[in-house]
Design brief:
Helices cover 68% and strands 0% of the residues. By secondary structure, the protein is mainly α.
Length: 349
């Protein structure tokens, strides 16, 4: 069965073409490398893994709650719409909402695959090209992993949301290499890390937990890669260039915050979309969840130097300014530790 047959919502076009131009840069200096990027490259090589052997795909999912997540993870939990659902309808909603969320991970990972290939083509410095090449392999593996989870276990998928599609279009159509880093490595990957963590830490199904934990182990390196590259580059750009990038950060963060309303799910299963969206938008629980999604982005934006008044005002308005003091390196170490613990449990069973 093709993916097209599994989509809950019809897909207008089987492919998506983004027109654009970018320069291709060859660097003939092979020894002038940076220690931090070389270390990251070595880690990237050493931590390559095979989704077919590291993950136990024989595990089954509960058809009534595939990932074993608490109902509080569903944005309309506690609403009138939720209370009117029968048990069978709640089970169907769990499957559809989890599939919708994983589908956006899948589409985002394909976006990361294309973006990182573009970075290899454009970025100055052989060491950055080396590391980006390891990330291309990582992203291909992530696409494979989420695709397999959706096709074999859920047998259901959702098309890319308009907001994620718009953001990917903006990133990939921009010819400047640093904008690809900023949009993908820092913003989309940073948001994904926080979303993956919710499933990794709350799922009672070990397959769902392992998929997200192992992907997170890679993604933490990817965000570190973007942070290293941009922290060196942004001190040397003009004020006008900095203003343009900060404007992009603000617009992208608002866009990402608003992509978790779930309209496609409510419409597909026959719920009143407007009532559901109003509840999600006003829910204190969902506001807190949507804020936590930026816990990896805010400290990185501060670290790379895009910390002007416009960014700080926007983050204060979104209620996420307090994340600026989070220790991203400690979060990365924790991601690696959890993945290693899952490996240890798997090998000792």
């Amino acid at each position: 069965m093709t993916t097209a047959r599994r989509y809950a919502v019809p897909v207008d076009e089987p492919e998506w073409t983004i027109p654009g131009e970018c320069e291709t840069l060859f660097d003939w200096e092979y020894e002038n490398t940076r220690d931090a990027l070389r270390r990251l490259y070595e880690k990237g090589k050493n931590l390559q893994w095979n989704t077919n052997t590291r993950i136990d795909w024989t595990q089954d999912l509960d058809p009534e709650n595939p990932e074993g997540l608490p109902d509080e993870a569903i944005p309309i939990f506690g609403s009138g719409c939720w209370s009117r659902l029968r048990d069978r309808e709640k089970a169907n909603l769990r499957r559809h909402f989890q599939s919708w969320q994983l589908s956006q991970f899948l589409h985002g990972e394909q976006g990361a695959l294309v973006c990182t290939a573009k970075i290899v083509q454009q970025v100055p410095g052989v060491d950055a090209k080396f590391y980006a090449a390891t990330q291309v392999m990582d992203e291909a593996r992530h696409v494979e992993t989420y695709s397999r989870l959706l096709h074999e276990k859920f047998e259901l998928a959702y098309p890319i949301t308009p907001t994620l599609k718009r953001l990917l279009h903006d990133i990939l159509s921009d010819s400047r290499w640093d904008m690809t880093y900023l949009g993908m490595q820092v913003l989309i990957e940073g948001l994904a890390l926080a979303a993956f963590a919710q499933i990794r830490d709350q799922a009672t199904n070990s397959l769902a937990q392992a998929v997200n934990a192992y992907v997170m182990q890679d993604e933490a390196r990817h965000v570190a890669f973007g942070r290293l590259a941009l922290r060196e580059f942004y001190p040397h750009i003009s004020e006008a260039e900095r203003d343009e990038r900060e404007e992009f950060v603000v617009e992208a963060c608002y866009l990402m915050r608003d992509r978790f309303l779930g309209e496609e799910v409510w419409e597909t299963i026959g719920l009143p979309v407007e009532e559901c969206v109003q509840y999600v938008d006003a829910s204190e629980t969902m506001r807190n969840f949507r804020s936590m999604l930026f816990s990896r982005i805010v400290p990185t934006i501060r670290d790379i130097g895009l910390w002007g008044p416009k960014v700080r005002r926007a983050y204060a308005n979104m209620g996420i300014l307090g994340f600026a003091d989070f220790d991203t390196e400690e979060l990365e170490r924790n991601d690696e530790r959890i993945a290693a613990e899952l490996d240890e449990r798997r090998t000792t069973r």
